[in-house]
Design brief:
alpha/beta, Rossmann fold, 2 domains, 7-stranded parallel beta sheet, 15 strands, about 15% strand, globular, binds uridine-5'-diphosphate, glycosyltransferase, UDP_glucos_trans
């Protein structure tokens, strides 16, 4: 039988690109011909994977498309600094349909795995009579929560932004305030993003199914809810970061080149006691005001803990504004390391000196925290991060919330130094911290088992590959998503 050929098309952001490439590597290691479609800004990580022996194909398509109105030089979502640039970025995602269809026409793969941000991909795949699998890059809990937020709209029944409401009919009593509900989930807000997200949900219901970078044991109630109540076809095949064994060099260059020499960083960590350093990083997109960065620095000092703090280059602050308290770096010289730019996050989290993680709850970071077995301080900022926070703090109970209340895409602020210091102390010290660490270690062990042969994720991928082979042979016994709600 010919090899199954699968095309992977990630969204133009590191949080989507990294797991999609890992997915392609995983499929390739299971005997599939895997091909990545990428835009110029994301060629390097694919080429790095190919150089380190992964048998993955690559097709590069032009970006930005001429008609998009985006300036040349924009290569990824993290360069979209203002809300008014986003519509052009959305438009450019639509314009990628044509070049992708040309590639499908020419190479005739058996399946298209396309990111959620390409809702047109469901119709595109249908034109070529192949299944479209959708990748959101988030948790089962987040997708169930998003869907229930859209259906029940409980934020309409509270009298103020700060009043809490419970989201009905989920496996747990998850409470939110109106300010934590993503813009795109709120009916009264109509903009390019909300319009796009409506198309995304519609395309999900008509797609062949959804792939999850998660594992069953982590969120069984929500994996079941998503399949049985929301009636989607779904396969959990993660944590993808554990699926492919690779060397430290590769891990250090994952996504982007690090702003710090990884050997220097590891040397620094290796000189510290186990579980004695807290790692603080907010992913590849979130931005803070200078005032908030100042509060983080103050919070770190009050906490008294050793730290590695990642501050994104250029966009977190007005370049001329002083966001560090005077003398901060001098005072914390032996205790802390600030990385300005991209950090080798996986390498850092895996180091035994790391004892806690302050995270924005992007799904990749959350999973990376889970796989490292460390307790977390959750500090959601935007996207679906407020939903993932609930999984960490209330369902798994492996973290504490810093108390972030405001969903905001850019220039986030509002968390005070005392809350930051308290959260850090709670995960790094005392009985409560030790309990969370014990539970986090259990999750880590479950994650490892899930991807082993016969583990839940390994088995689910085997089932998917079998179905795709069956589909290809024309014996299509599978029903497409058949959603009741
Ligand atoms: N990441 C990294 N170094 C950084 C910032 C981010 O390696 O300095 C990686 C991180 O390990 C994760 C991804 O980038 O794999 C960020 O994805 P996530 O879903 O956590 O957040 P997003 O960037 O999408 O908000």
């Amino acid at each position: 039988m010919n090899q199954l050929h699968v095309f992977f098309f990630p969204y133009l952001a590191h949080g989507h690109m990294i797991p999609t490439l890992e997915m392609a590597k995983l499929f390739a290691s299971r005997g599939v011909q895997a091909t990545m479609i990428v835009t110029p800004g994301f060629v390097e990580p694919v080429e790095n994977a190919r150089k380190s022996g992964f048998n993955i194909g690559i097709h590069v398509i032009k970006f930005p498309p001429e008609e998009s109105g985006l300036p040349d030089g924009i290569t990824s979502a993290d360069q979209i600094k203002s809300d008014d640039m986003f519509p052009k970025f959305v438009k450019s995602m639509e314009l990628l349909q044509e070049p992708v269809e040309k590639l499908l026409e020419e190479f005739r793969p058996d399946c298209l795995v396309a990111d959620m941000f390409f809702p047109w991909a469901t119709d595109t795949a249908a034109k070529f009579d192949i299944p479209r699998l959708l990748f959101h890059g988030t948790s089962f809990l987040a997708l169930c929560t998003s869907q229930h937020m859209r259906i029940y709209k409980p934020y309409k029944n509270v009298s103020s932004d700060s009043e809490e409401f419970v989201l009905p009919n989920l496996p747990h009593q998850l409470k939110f305030t109106r300010t934590q509900v993503p813009d795109f989930a709120r009916e009264e807000i109509v903009n390019e993003i909300t319009k796009l997200l409506t198309k995304v949900y519609e395309s999900e219901t008509r797609s062949y199914g959804v792939l999850f970078n998660s594992f069953y044991e982590l969120e069984p109630d929500y994996a079941d809810h998503y399949r049985k109540v929301l009636r989607r076809n779904a396969w959990h095949i993660g944590p993808l970061l554990l699926c492919n064994k690779e060397g430290e060099d590769f891990k250090a260059q994952r996504g982007k080149e690090s702003a710090i020499d990884e050997h220097e960083c590891l040397e620094w960590l290796n000189s510290k006691e186990p579980n004695s350093v807290v790692y603080i990083c907010f992913g590849s997109i979130a931005t803070f005001t200078a005032k908030q960065l100042y509060e983080i620095a103050k919070g770190l000092e009050i906490s008294g803990q050793k730290f590695i703090w990642v501050v994104r280059e250029g966009k977190n602050q007005d370049e001329n504004e002083n966001w560090l308290p005077e003398g901060f770096e001098e005072r914390t010289k032996d205790k802390g390391l600030i990385i300005r730019g991209w950090a080798p996050q996986l390498l850092i989290l895996e180091n035994k000196a790391i004892g806690g993680f302050v995270t924005h709850c992007g799904w990749n970071s959350t999973l990376e925290g889970v796989c490292s077995g460390v307790p977390m301080v959750t500090w959601p900022v935007f996207a679906e991060q407020f939903y993932n926070e609930k999984l960490v703090t209330e369902v798994l109970r492996i973290g504490v919330s810093v108390g972030s209340k405001q969903w905001k895409r850019v220039a986030s602020e509002g968390v005070e130094r005392e809350a930051i210091a308290l959260g850090i102390r709670k995960i790094m010290e005392g009985e409560e911290g030790a309990e969370m660490r014990r539970r986090a270690q259990e999750c880590k062990e479950q994650a490892r088992k899930a991807v082993e042969e016969d583990g839940s994720s390994y088995t689910d991928l085997s089932a998917l590959l079998q179905e795709l082979n069956t589909y290809r042979l024309g014996v299509n016994t599978l029903k497409f998503n058949n959603c009741s709600i």
